């Protein structure tokens, strides 16, 4: 599993956690994928960088290899060369993917070298696969302006030791990286294209995390292990884990997920596709709609969180509001690596990094990102991205202090 990327497009979520540790239904993505893969392989090796090593050390039953030379997916794979035998067959899986077990089963059961492919309605964002009539690889075209097909590289390969001889032949891409797809292109028609039509998501941008949780929530079955006080209404599917307390007057519309030991209410409104992590407090007169709220966060009272991602250990002051709809009802755009990028969503709220604190009566405009450890002073209207660790002072306080 290639997990050495920095995840800059996912900031501020990745200010405090590696990209593969983004949570889907309160479980780190990489742990979910390891559980699937272990059914089909002898060993799991994760390629990491020097950042966040402590996270990966918590994973049991895997080997960790640090990528110390070069950049890119091919350089990451080369880091494990010395751990492989010449007759080994192995899977290579990108660390930020959401997929079902069927994807791994299909490629494992294919004879020889193979690449997994799936269809996308927007193939120009990915590596597009061109194959011949016998389902053999012709080439992978990276992010073409005019895609030759809707079939894209799904980021799961079955390879042999020969791949390293092809990696030795490739040169740096325009991004200054050694790309695994360039090496696979050199192998050519020896690679079989395995088409997969199940769940697949590349979690590359913050709003992708909302979609990933929605997709898995649709697959889950009802379970309620929590404690319900009187006058709680649950309509539709709800997955409520052990130790949860739902206080009186709370109304829940499924599908909804609530993680272990969280406390909801009294008089809270939890709307469809809300995913609330473990040890979270959603208190009185709060409304949560289609949002991901990570572990240990506190939203005590009188707040609205819509179509947002709220990272771990955030504390919202009373009356903190995430606006999620533009006045003109156009697509919400977000700053991603210094570029204004369309989210594809008409409704998108805030992306709030870990350990953020907001004062009372804070309003956050659609598509705004707030970096980890930031403080937002009372009464602020947050109309721009806030840097990691920044103290955001509202206009009325800046004016009164003469700054």
UniProtKB/TrEMBL annotation:
Keywords: Acyltransferase, Multifunctional enzyme, Nucleotidyltransferase, Transferase
Nucleotidyltransferase is among the record's keywords: yes
Stored Pfam families: GMPPB_C, NTP_transferase
Enzyme Commission number(s) of this protein: 2.3.1.157, 2.7.7.23
Source species, domain of life: Archaea
UniProt pathway: Nucleotide-sugar biosynthesis; UDP-N-acetyl-alpha-D-glucosamine biosynthesis; UDP-N-acetyl-alpha-D-glucosamine from N-acetyl-alpha-D-glucosamine 1-phosphate: step 1/1; Nucleotide-sugar biosynthesis; UDP-N-acetyl-alpha-D-glucosamine biosynthesis; N-acetyl-alpha-D-glucosamine 1-phosphate from alpha-D-glucosamine 6-phosphate (route II): step 2/2
GO molecular function: glucosamine-1-phosphate N-acetyltransferase activity; UDP-N-acetylglucosamine diphosphorylase activity
Domain Nucleotidyl transferase: 2-217
CDD domains named among the record's database cross-references: LbH_G1P_TT_C_like, NTP_transferase
PANTHER family named in the record: N-ACETYLMURAMATE ALPHA-1-PHOSPHATE URIDYLYLTRANSFERASE, NUCLEOTIDYL TRANSFERASE
Name of this chain's protein: N-acetylglucosamine-1-phosphate uridyltransferase / Glucosamine-1-phosphate N-acetyltransferase
Phylogenetic classification of the source organism: Archaea, Thermoproteota, Thermoprotei, Sulfolobales, Sulfolobaceae
